Amino acid sequence: xxxxxxxELIGMQKASEAVAYTLKAMRNYAQPxxxxxxxxxxxxxxxxxxxxxxxxxxxxxxxxxxxISVNHAFxxxxxxxxxxxxxxxxxxxxxxxELNGFWSDNGGSFVLGEDVNQHQKLIDASKQILQKxxxxxxxxxxxxxxxxxxxxxxxxxxYKVIKNLTGHGIGRSLHEEPREIAxxxxxxxxxxxxxxxxxxxxxxxxxxxxxxxxxxxxxxMVGNKGGxxxxxxxxxxxxxxxxxxxxxxxxxx
Length: 253
Hints:
Blueprint: H1 6-29, H2 36-50, E1 53-54, H3 55-60, E2 67-70, E3 73-75, E4 90-99, E5 102-111, H4 120-134, H5 143-156, E6 160-161, E7 167-169, E8 176-181, E9 198-206, E10 212-214, E11 221-223, E12 229-237, E13 244-245
Antiparallel strand pairs: 1-4, 2-4, 3-11, 4-5, 5-12, 6-9, 7-8, 7-9, 9-12, 10-11, 12-13
């Protein structure tokens, strides 16, 4: 969507506050021995307190309120009574929701407890690259150039990007134009960011894989070559200068 009046900005700010606060609270609540279903139930209660509704459930009938992916699961992980969190796990939580007709999206990967499996370097790379990408975006910048920046920064650090997972426009529904904000230079995409538009910018930084593949459950995605991936995401409003980061209260950096 494009922000054309103050009421729309306020609506996006409220929806973004709901998802950002929920992500932060879930990250702080997670602990070893907990199931991902317990963590999702906690997130569901927070969204409900805001009056917000789960975007993946509304849009796709996703069987959970949030996406929780652990270790080799890259994204769209199903909350489960059978997945028990352990010390040192690489956990990704993606929270998107609708509130009063406005939609917002954010996510973040983190290490649960002590970094016994040495994932923090990958997580830090994803955060730093997202931050650099976001603060390079303004009206008129090519979407493909941001993808090039993300992949270049990943390569500098010895990592790869997932090419079939992308950021996207958002606002009045979960996915809007531009439909694909890729993590590499997609030369076939001539789109430019537009001032006052709302977009969800995501990094998908991986150790060895370049594509994500859907598992038999129909939802969970893993790397085509295995390994691990870190994702971080903010919903922003594009301006002529520094973007407005609507989900900044999630404190992913």
